[in-house]
Every structure is written in structure tokens, then in C-alpha cells.
Amino acid sequence: MNIITFENTPPLPLEPHFKDIKAANYLMQHLINMMEDPIYVETGVSAGRSISFILQKCPSIKRAYGVDFWSENTDTFERSGDTHYSQAHSDRAFLSASNRILSSGHKDKVTLIKEDVAVAVDHFEDNSIDLLFLDHYLNKKDVEECLPMWYNKVKVGGYFAGHDWIYAGVKKSVLNFREQYDIKPLLSVSGGEWVWKKDGNI
User: Fold this and answer.
1) How far apart are the first and last CA of the chain?
2) Over the stretch 51-110, which tens digit does the pLDDT of each residue have?
3) What are residue 138's phi and psi, to 5 degrees?
4) What is the secondary structure of 8-39 as a DSSP string?
5) In this structure, are residues 135 and 164 in contact, taking their beta carbons and an 8 Å threshold?
6) Measuring CA to CA, which residue among 60, 43, 34 is closest to residue 158?
7) How far, CA to CA in Å, does 108 sit from each of 62, 104, 138, 148?
8) Of 153, 118, 160, nearest to 137 (Cα)?
9) Exposure of 40 in the CB half-sphere (CA atoms within 13 A)
10) SS3 50
11) Among candidates 63, 57, 60, 87, which has minimal Cα distance to 3?
């Protein structure tokens, strides 16, 4: 498994990493800041805007993990329609993510896993994550596969969350998953973000 840490990498000059309310993972900071020494996991890191923002807004984070394969792909969850991203684009995104982490002031808390989510999930034990934010999926099939794959990795009492609720492929998949496994906790949606507090495993 391709594991990347930054403890032995010199930091870059500190920069503030801002996000606006329309951006992915803007609202999760409030949940994270109510936790004590949380373990935070984000899939779909891309250029690192979200994870660097969360690191700066949530100083209580004990460890932050970012998962992304940083490979050539086609994203069907784009407002402009299917969008193809080359390997060169993904390589630039990985470099940007690394630089944002190095300039966040919290580089030593971060582990990147440069793998497909189906591989990276094995890095985590069941009931080990305080807040999981899913944002890697490129199509409806990705959503359907990742929900049961990752669900038990989140602690009972932790938060299972994600992005792109505005797309029917995400919304329908999440609702079907909840129905299939009789998941009762309240589902909260704000803009593109969705989340609920786990009350049990599947």
C-alpha cells in the first residue's frame, strides 16, 4: 500500500487555506470541533483544498488521512457533464495536495494513502474512524460500492458523511443504502453535504 507521511519533509511557509460555504466539507468542521482527538478520513483528496482547510479549522484532530488514487479518470458528477482528467492532471493535483498540507501548519498529522478506496479501506480497522467524509466517487457504481465497504470502519457514535448530494446517483445510492440496512439515525443534508451519526454496524 502506498502510504505517504510528511514528518520528515520540511514545511512550506504557512498559508491560510480557505473554503466557501458552497465547497465540499465546509460544514463538517463544526462536528469535528466537538470531538476530542478525532481520527478524520477523507476520500477523494484531489488537490487538497478540503483536507488542508479542515486541518487548519480543526486543531483538535489527532490524525487526518487522505485517500485518493490520483490516476487518470472520468468524473460523471460534474455540472458540465462527464469530464475526463488525464494522468498529468492527477499528478499536478497530488503535488498541489502535498504542498497545501506542507503549508497548513499541521503536516505531521497527515497520512496520504495513494490507492483506490477498495485497497485503502484495508488500512483501517473496524470502528476506528471518528468522521469519514466520502468524496472520491466518479459515478453511481462507485457510490453503491463504497458505502457498505467503508461503513463499519466508522466508530459507533461517529459520523458517516459525504459530498455531491446534488447528484441523483449519490442521493439515490445513499437513500437505498440506508433502506437496505435499516439505518435509522437522522440524515442531515446541507447543500452538497450529507451526514448522519452512526448507531451501529451493518
Assistant:
1) 26
2) 999 999 999 999 999 999 999 999 988 767 789 999 999 999 999 999 999 999 999 999
3) -110, -10
4) TSPPPPP------TTSTTSTHHHHHTTSSS-E
5) yes
6) 34
7) 10, 10, 30, 30
8) 118
9) 33
10) helix
11) 63
Domain boundaries, the chain: 3-197
| Cell output for 156 | 459507533
Cell numbers for 81, please give them: 457533464
Interval 160-173 mean pLDDT: 95
The b/e string for 132-171 (b: 16+ C-beta within 10 A; e otherwise) is bbbbbbbbbebbbebbeebbbbbbeebbbbbbbbebebbe
List of residues 6+ apart from 111 with CB closer than 8 A:
3, 4, 5, 63, 64, 65, 66
DSSP secondary structure, 132-178, as one string: EEE----SHHHHHHHHHHHHTTEEEEEEEEES-TTSHHHHHHHHHHH
Per-residue model confidence as pLDDT tens digits over 4-15: 999 999 999 999
Q: Scan for cell 463538517, then name that residue.
A: 28
| pTM, to two decimals | 0.95
| CATH class (in words) of the domain with range 3-197 | alpha beta
Using alpha carbons only, what angle is made at residue 111 by residues 41 and 200, rounded to the nearest 5 degrees?
Answer: 25
Joined together, the cell numbers standing for residue 42 give 477523507
